[in-house]
């Protein structure tokens, strides 16, 4: 069983729509959750992080965390073609080492003009 | 320079070569990391350093040898690599290891390594 799972996609949405990216994790003791965006050929860049159950909003991005369901999502409102990238979910792994982030394989998002 | 820098950006080497990757962070962070990113696979953590001390070594083959001379610099020495070692090697840094809660890692641009 993968520790952090994401749908690989590709996920396509039209410009202006809401893109919904999902991530599940296996370690119930995980405490911190991160979303990174990675453009093709580039390094990951942090979009946002969330620690507490519920929603956290930052501009067009909303992270949602449900620890009971071991589920974290990222919503992108008013999607733009420039949002087309691979989105990586990362979870800290206290059962192995609190120092580690475990990454999912990423979801490729394409926003169609 | 700002953020996390890596050199070289691209590297092609033969299996008998010895080369080194360099990472430098300008963020005043205390922790640094090496990751390997292969096509269609998740980022794989290789090494973690905190205040120049190695705290994680994730069963990485000995042909990869890290070095952290100070909290701003991190090297990855490479020797007798295999073609399957071809990948994007990413360096990251964070303020600390954040054992009690979350910590944010900032990535460098990576070194695209090709082993012939």
Explain what this protein looks like in three dimensions:
- The complex is a heterodimer of chains A (113) and B (116).
- With 113 residues, chain A is mostly beta strands.
- Chain A is 0% helix and 58% strand.
- Chain A has strands spanning 4-6, 11-14, 19-25, 33-38, 45-50, 54-58, 61-66, 71-76, 85-93, 97-103, 107-112.
- By secondary structure, chain B is an all-beta fold.
- In chain B, the strands form 2 sheets. In chain B, strands 2, 4, 5, 6, 9, 10 and 11 form a 7-stranded mixed beta sheet that branches. A 4-stranded antiparallel beta sheet of chain B has the order 1-3-8-7, with no helix packed on it.
- Chain B has no helices and 11 strands.
- Chain B starts with a strand and ends with a strand.
- Helix content of chain B is 0%, strand content 55%.
- Chains A and B meet through strand 4, strand 5, strand 9 and strand 10 of A and strand 5 and strand 10 of B.
Keyphrases for this structure?
heterodimer; A: 113 residues; mainly beta; 11 strands; B: 116 residues; four-stranded antiparallel β-sheet; 55% strand
SSE inventory with pairings:
The complex is a heterodimer of chains A (113) and B (116).
Chain A: E1 4-6, E2 11-14, E3 19-25, E4 33-38, E5 45-50, E6 54-58, E7 61-66, E8 71-76, E9 85-93, E10 97-103, E11 107-112
Parallel strand pairs in A: 2-11
Antiparallel strand pairs in A: 1-3, 3-8, 4-5, 4-9, 6-7, 7-8, 9-10, 9-11
Chain B: E1 4-7, E2 10-13, E3 18-25, E4 31-37, E5 44-50, E6 53-57, E7 64-70, E8 73-79, E9 87-94, E10 106-107, E11 111-115
Parallel strand pairs in B: 2-11
Antiparallel strand pairs in B: 1-3, 3-8, 4-5, 4-9, 5-6, 7-8, 9-10, 9-11
